[in-house]
């Protein structure tokens, strides 16, 4: 017989309770034909940028994953690149090339190249969540999260491509999700095959039902294990902190855009002034040029901060919501287990009461049945119910143990990624600020030296000014 409620948890050790200690406190899709397809070359506007995502599929041969912090041997590499615009009579959309290289025997070859649109990425994520509800599936960027950008612009596509690349890389590194059959189909199936598989997904109502069940379980939860209570509190706190940082980042970005707008109005003032001041023309034009360079520096800072700081923060905000969702699913499984245990206890008590009960005045006796036969029938019925409940309890106990192990393993992996990613994000922010202020400092220092160059400015000398002053006296 299975252990009673909570028996599968065991006693927590002190180091297990502190496992998730907050480090911030301690340090309907249809593919159209390719008619109207337009290739969008991201390299064309970023040839001078270091670290830009290349369209060349030859990168796979030398592709290095930043997630390789454990030195593990990887056998699945994925590149997302080459965005193309497709235009049909009903819609316009973007597809990305997904190139895969692998040595896994489950695949029919070693290299594959397919085209997928954003809704296809949504499909694979939903299927993975449905098939692996207690595993942490990485988040996807919101479909229209970059409202200030045109969704067909080069800047938008670069940010979206980077996010999709990170999503597939994390899936490829997952020891369970990367072996899922649907994921293999996503990476290898041709367009018509892929569309056929997409139609085999679970219905909308079933997903809504599962979601409502998980939400209700989180509110009915009575005996959540302490380690998962700590995990829930940590994720809630982390989400709150990231949310504050995201809101402040948006305010700073707005102020920087306002500042850039003021600079755009300020620079032409010097140019117009220079038209009426012959002796100050050089200085005024130098100031106008300096302000224009400041505008470029501010714009670069805004764009880089958005892609290298704001977007990673938003990603981990989405990640925190994914973790909360998995926690609710885990709670739903344990809640079912606790309810079955409670029901089993009631049935056992009823069984004990039947042994000493008098069935003379029972409904069956009034219908002419022998009281002892009535008692025997009730006893047999309870025996069957107890047997069924025991089987349910054992099955749910196994599911709970598996759910706990899945979530803890994924959280351990997520914490390692998070610590590295957030460190890199904060260092990127610091580097961007240093580069911006160094650029501005150098710019204004050069401006001072240029203005001080008398040959360039042609300022009147002090002696000439004195002579003019003396000649003006009576």
From TrEMBL:
Membrane topology: Peripheral membrane protein
UniProt-recorded Gene Ontology molecular function terms: phosphatidylinositol binding
Entry keyword set: Coiled coil, Cytoplasm, Lipid-binding, Membrane, Transport
Family: Belongs to the sorting nexin family.
Residue span, PX domain: 74-193
Protein location: Cytoplasm; Endomembrane system
Coiled coil, from the record: 372-399
Protein name per Swiss-Prot or TrEMBL: PX domain-containing protein
One matching Pfam family: Vps5
Mitochondrion recorded as keyword: no
Signal peptide: none
The keyword Coiled coil belongs to this UniProt entry's keyword annotation: yes
């Amino acid at each position: 017989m299975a252990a009673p409620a909570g028996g599968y948890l065991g006693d927590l050790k002190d180091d297990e309770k502190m496992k998730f200690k907050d480090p911030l406190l301690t340090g309907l899709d249809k593919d159209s034909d390719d008619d109207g397809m337009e290739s969008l070359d991201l390299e064309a506007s970023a040839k001078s940028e270091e670290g830009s995502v290349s369209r060349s599929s030859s990168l796979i041969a030398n592709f290095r994953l930043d997630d390789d912090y454990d030195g593990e041997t990887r056998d699945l590499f994925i590149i997302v690149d080459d965005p193309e615009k497709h235009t049909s009579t009903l819609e316009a959309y973007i597809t990305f090339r997904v190139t895969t290289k692998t040595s896994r025997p489950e695949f029919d070859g070693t290299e594959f190249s397919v085209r997928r649109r954003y809704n296809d990425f949504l499909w694979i994520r939903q299927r993975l969540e449905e098939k692996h509800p207690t595993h942490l599936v990485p988040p996807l960027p919101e479909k229209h999260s970059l409202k200030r950008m045109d969704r067909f612009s080069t800047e938008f596509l670069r940010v979206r491509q980077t996010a999709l690349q990170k999503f597939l890389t994390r899936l490829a590194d997952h020891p369970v999700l990367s072996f899922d059959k649907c994921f293999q189909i996503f990476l290898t199936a041709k367009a018509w095959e892929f569309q056929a598989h997409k139609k085999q997904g679970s219905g909308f109502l079933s997903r809504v039902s599962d979601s409502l069940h998980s939400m209700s379980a989180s509110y009915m939860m009575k005996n959540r294990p302490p380690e998962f209570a700590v995990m829930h509190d940590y994720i809630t706190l982390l989400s709150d902190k990231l949310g504050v940082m995201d809101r402040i980042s948006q305010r700073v970005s707005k102020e920087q855009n306002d500042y850039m707008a003021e600079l755009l109005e300020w620079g032409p003032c010097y140019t117009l002034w220079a038209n009426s001041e012959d002796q100050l023309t050089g200085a005024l034009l130098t100031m106008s040029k300096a302000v224009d360079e400041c505008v470029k520096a501010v714009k670069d800072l805004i764009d880089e901060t958005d892609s290298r700081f704001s977007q990673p923060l938003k990603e981990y905000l989405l990640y925190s919501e994914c973790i909360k969702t998995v926690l609710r699913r885990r709670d739903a499984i344990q809640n079912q287990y606790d309810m079955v245990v409670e029901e089993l206890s009631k049935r056992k008590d009823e069984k004990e009461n039947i042994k000493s009960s008098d069935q003379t005045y029972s409904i069956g006796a009034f219908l002419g049945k022998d009281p002892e036969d009535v008692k025997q029938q009730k006893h047999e019925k309870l025996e069957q119910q107890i047997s069924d409940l025991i089987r349910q309890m054992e099955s749910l106990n196994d599911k709970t143990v598996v759910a706990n192990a899945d979530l803890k393993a994924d959280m351990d992996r997520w914490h390692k990624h998070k610590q590295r990613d957030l460190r890199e994000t904060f260092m990127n922010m610091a580097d961007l600020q240093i580069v911006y202020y160094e650029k501005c400092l150098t710019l204004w220092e050069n401006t001072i030296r240029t203005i001080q160059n008398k040959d360039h400015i042609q300022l009147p000398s002090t002696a000439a000014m004195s002579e003019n002053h003396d000649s003006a006296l009576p």
